Amino acid sequence: xxxxxxxxxFLLICTPAFLQAQxxxxxxxxxxxxxxxxxxxxxxxxxxxxFGFDEELFLKVEMGQYHTDYDxxxxxxxxxxxxxxxxxxxxxxxxxxxxxxxxxKLTLWELNEALKNCIYRPEQxxxxxxxxxxxxxxxxxxxxxxSKHSRAVLFCVMHPSLPISKKIDQLTHQxxxxxxDQKKLLNKxxxxxxxxxxxxxxxxxxxxxSGQSFDGITFLAAGEGSGTAGLLxxxxxxxxxxxxxxxxxxxxxxxxxxxxxxxxxxxxxxSTEQIELPAGKPSSLHISLWGLNSSFxxxxxxxxxxxxxxxxxxxxxRELSADPAMGSGISHLDRIEQYxxxxxxxxxxxxxxxxxxxxxxxxxxGIKAEIETNLSRLEAEIDTLQKEENPSQPAIDxxxxxIDTNLTNLTKKERRITELESKLSGEYAKIASAEKKLTEMExxxxxxxxSWHKNKDHYLFKDGVVFNTRTQDLIFPITETPTSLAIQxxxxxxxxxGKQKDEVQIYVSLTDAxxxxxxxxxxxxxxxxxxxxxxxxxxxxxxxxxxxxxILKKAISNxxxxxxxxxxxxxxxxxxxxxxxxxxxxxxxxEQPITTAGQNRKVELxxxxxxxxxxxxxxxxxxxxxxRLSMLDPELRSQLxxxxxxxxxxxxxxxxRAMGIIKKVLLKSDPNHIIExxxxxxxxxxxxxxxxxxxxxxxxx
Length: 701
Fold this sequence. Notes:
Layout (H helix, E strand, L loop, with lengths): L1 H13 L12 H12 L2 H7 L3 E2 L6 E4 L2 E4 L1 H10 L5 E2 L1 H5 L3 H25 L6 H12 L8 H12 L5 H11 L4 H30 L7 E7 L12 E4 L2 E8 L9 E4 L2 E4 L2 E8 L5 E8 L8 E6 L2 E8 L4 E3 L10 H21 L4 H30 L6 H51 L8 E4 L2 E4 L4 E3 L4 E4 L6 E8 L13 E9 L13 E7 L13 H12 L3 E6 L35 E9 L2 E8 L13 H6 L7 H21 L6 E4 L11 H11 L2
Parallel strand pairs: 22-24, 22-25
Antiparallel strand pairs: 1-4, 2-3, 5-20, 6-7, 8-9, 10-19, 11-18, 11-20, 12-13, 12-19, 13-14, 15-16, 16-17, 17-18, 21-23, 23-24
């Protein structure tokens, strides 16, 4: 690991693109940005390789695990700005959604720090920050408060580290504010945080994207508001005891909307906002999650008129996916299925099982029908008997007695049926109530959820909308007129009833859709470059050419995939069969121009493009002089069984040279774009036992 960090650090500081002369951010802001990228999986995956800094000196052990002390990193970078190298040009070429996420988090981080200074160190309070929030909030304060209490109330509302439940508790019991006044203050705070984030994140977006802007942002928060993970999943230290952790960082910036319920104030359990897609250009929604619970899987429902798109949060990756099966945790969709299984189906089965009210009632209906049939038959028989010339009165009286008995039974049966119907009506009421609740739960999913199929990193919805998992962008095609979208945040309830839900916040930015530029315009890419080597060496003295570096940079920014391989040596590149035992002048082989033997010590790197994949294939060769791989570690040489110079060793050397060039390419690539590496460990850049296994497999020795 240390070896890798040192290599990467050396490469980064030696790369001309990582220049600081025109850094758009201050040293402190750069340090914040570095921290944000390192601790945000989506940004680290896409941007991590654009930052050069050696974290090795800032590792500390906590609970037996290594962690980076980012507070120490911050101080170091502020004092020594040159220690951090950032490739701003490459960042500007990435997805606008990624840039907007970094801009929003920079804004929230800066706001969090500024507000903490205001509250804990009033002498360091930036007047502009305090006035931005205090003046409009002050208009919502009750007139009965004096200036001292007014400032205390404002600090409570503006506190960036207090969960909203704690703010409500303090406003109620400590400051004795009426519920209506609390609602005005906290909903105003929600509005002000959103407006501040929009204005100031635009500033950072312009700096990082080289002057562009995005179309808007919206914040959504849902849950019961007791507290959850903070910004970058960090916690604050308790202001009364710095040895203990407190609440999540920046959790007081959650933009809950509150309402009055049962004479108290409660955050809404779900949140919906509107955002408008502009006409005439493809647009993208970039969605970022803040504060997840491992037990729950929040859902984002985006509704476009008569259809909707579902995205599910994953606690482990802290990202979204269109696949409900991805990740762990309970989602609102899961709660619907659980409710149907545990509430609806048992009620319906109870009505159908043997001995149930429904079955008994049906039997009672049948008995009643038999009694009524008997009555009709007896009455008909009496009519027939009475029409005879000499009617038999005993026969008529007997049938009348049977009629009286049947009427008594019918009355009892009707009373029993009425009783059963009343009980059954209660059961049907339960079913109707359960059906209504289920319908309410399903209605939150939006109309006509769109199906999708997956292609690599993309979920392709049937109407042409695409969700890119690598950038977390939901991309909409061009529309002729502006389109209004409803964005809803749903957090799964703690129970099936779902009245209390786990808290979570998202921020959604509306940007231009990422442009996928082709590296080439017409013919498929097919480039070839030759690297030369000194005798016995497998690290080329020939650097990667600028043309190759440019192609790699464009490939990463355009999200192309990279495939690498060491191919069998073509006959034209194999070392000559006529074996020479030594060089006429070995010292000359290390000089320029390259000798005839030196022209055979080479690797041909062939680069082709197939669709969205760049393919690199390295063909290695040696000169005719047998090698004993003197540059290889003695222990590894022993494992290969190398004791003397041999033509067979040249085959090893050819493979090592090809592997070395592939490693150079991979070191300059984004590891997350590498989809396949043949005959080479994807994440290993040292010559080790894994390398030996590949060498033996490749060479057949």
